[in-house]
């Protein structure tokens, strides 16, 4: 228990330090030209992709429509596809999502867990969306995905595929 508490305190201290560094960089670099956004342009949608729920198809639709509807699509790639972020990474993620005005309105997608932006003092929080699927159908889809792969990245060899017989 003591190790967990110590780890948590250390992680928080590092996160606070990183926030201070970002703020200092902003002042050291001098005032940046502030981009102001209309209310409808200051929107970020975070699509938490649940595997085997047509997330690739849904994301492809977002990419197909982004230019026509004037929004940006961004893939959130987490380390080793681990959806849980450390406190340090959470601070960075919140800072990036809320301050990157050039990428708004934005549709961010990836295999990530929900993050409460209000916990970090953010007033204009992103909108989270998910697509869900019947659990049995999802399991059947996953079985065939592991057995035969997919058409999206046919050359990719996944370590869980194993023997296809």
From TrEMBL:
It comes from the Eukaryota. Gene3D superfamilies: P-loop containing nucleotide triphosphate hydrolases. GO terms for molecular function: heparan sulfate 2-sulfotransferase activity. It is found in: Golgi apparatus membrane. SUPFAM superfamilies: P-loop containing nucleoside triphosphate hydrolases. Belongs to the sulfotransferase 3 family. This is Heparan sulfate 2-O-sulfotransferase 1.
């Amino acid at each position: 228990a003591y190790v967990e508490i110590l780890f948590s305190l250390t992680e928080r201290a590092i996160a606070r330090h990183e926030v201070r560094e970002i703020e200092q960089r902003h002042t050291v670099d001098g005032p940046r030209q502030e981009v102001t956004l209309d209310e409808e342009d200051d929107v970020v949608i975070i699509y938490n992709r649940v595997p085997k729920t047509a997330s690739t198809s849904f994301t492809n639709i977002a990419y197909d429509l982004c230019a026509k509807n004037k929004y940006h699509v961004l893939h959130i790639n987490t380390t080793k596809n681990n959806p849980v972020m450390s406190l340090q990474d959470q601070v960075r993620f919140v800072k990036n999502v809320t301050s990157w005005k050039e990428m708004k309105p934005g549709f961010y997608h990836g295999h990530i867990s929900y993050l409460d932006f209000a916990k970090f003092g953010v007033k204009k929080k992103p909108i989270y969306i998910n697509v869900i699927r019947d659990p049995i159908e999802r399991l059947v889809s996953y079985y065939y995905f592991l057995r035969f792969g997919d058409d999206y990245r046919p050359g990719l060899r996944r370590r869980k595929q194993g023997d296809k017989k």
